[in-house]
Amino acid sequence: MRSIMTAIWSFLLMLMLTYVVSSMVGVAFNLQLALTLGVITTILVHVIPFILPQPAEQDGHH
After folding, report:
1. pLDDT tens, residue by residue, 10-34
2. Which helix (H) or strand (E) holds 28?
3. Where are the alpha helices (DSSP H) in the chain?
4. What is the Cα–Cα distance from 15 to 30, expressed in whole angstroms?
């Protein structure tokens, strides 16, 4: 379920970002670019946690 929600939010945010930036620049909205950015963002959100180093385990004693 988490993966589906991540993909939905990635697509929605990239659609919004592409629309706003294209409006500010004065060019036509490009749906294909927005969907491509959504796919790339979704993949990065799922891959980055595996790339980052895991924090060291700490025991309860100080």
Report:
1. 999 999 999 999 999 999 999 999 9
2. none
3. 2-25, 31-51
4. 9
